[in-house]
Amino acid sequence: MSLSLQGKTAIVTGAGRGIGLAVAHRLVERGANVMFADSDEALLEAELGSDLDSEGPIRAFAGDMGEKLAMANLISATLDAFDRVDILVNAHRLVRGSDPLDTDVDTLDEMMRQNMMSALRMSQLVARRMIRQAADSVDSDEIGSIVNISTLAGSRPIPELLGYSIACAALEQATRGLALALAPHRIRVNGVSFSSVMSHELKLALRERPELRDHVIAGTPMGRIASADELAEAVLYLTGSGAGFVTGQILTVDGGRSLVDPVSTKML
Fold first, then answer.
1. Are residues 114 and 47 in contact, defined by beta-carbon separation less than 8 angstroms?
2. Partners of 35 in the β-ladder
3. Rounded CA separation 217/2 (Å)
4. Would you tell me which of 126, 145, 169, 191 could form a disulfide with 88, CB atoms 3.0–4.6 Å apart?
5. 254: which DSSP letter?
6. Vertex 173, ends 145 and 73: CA angle to 5°?
7. At what angle do helices 18-29 and 200-208 cross, to 10 degrees?
8. Greatest C-alpha distance within the chain
9. Superfamily of domain 9-267
10. Strand ranges (DSSP E) for 46-177?
């Protein structure tokens, strides 16, 4: 199984911090050219710093990943820098609480726009580009790979995150639907659902309430919190040739959490 991504170009959204940042760096380590995309320009500059080089494998793009124009500009910037797109990782997420008995419509719309529609639209735009590239790679078994990042909120009820849960569930269904639609074009679409992983959100929660660490660990059969790099390894597998016959799957990375009690906001 080859894990080399030499000659490949990837776009990673939500790459300014946490899981998205870890995924983007891991793809670079495996030889890919990577466009780090995030809504926070200052954060990208702080994280990447001297790694931003017009001749190197890393570029950065700042824009609202919920906006169609920003998505189109992101793809254009990637093509200007690297001429092609082979991998898309939709790691951009926005998490907000909602009252399950009185869900604010605007909040629900925002959760859908930022967590599901942004990934769906990016996938559609990138897939069209991949298909156009196929004319130059007719002998290849695969012309592209798309990975959507979700959480167990998509499959396990979390009432206090109702809007976010609905968006995650919709994203996982969109992943399966796109996998079927794009399989004839030799584009694979998969997802990674996580819990008990040191995401940006969990890190913030632990700063405010350090005692939550013991709660998370106690609720995870493997007895620890995984690093963002460990989740990045799962994404790396799905983007590589070793997963060449894997599509339409949601790979769960949670240390066994989904096998036991329902998850809560503390697990995300």
1. no
2. 11, 59
3. 33
4. 126
5. S
6. 50
7. 140
8. 55
9. NAD(P)-binding Rossmann-like Domain (3.40.50.720)
10. 58-62, 87-90, 144-151
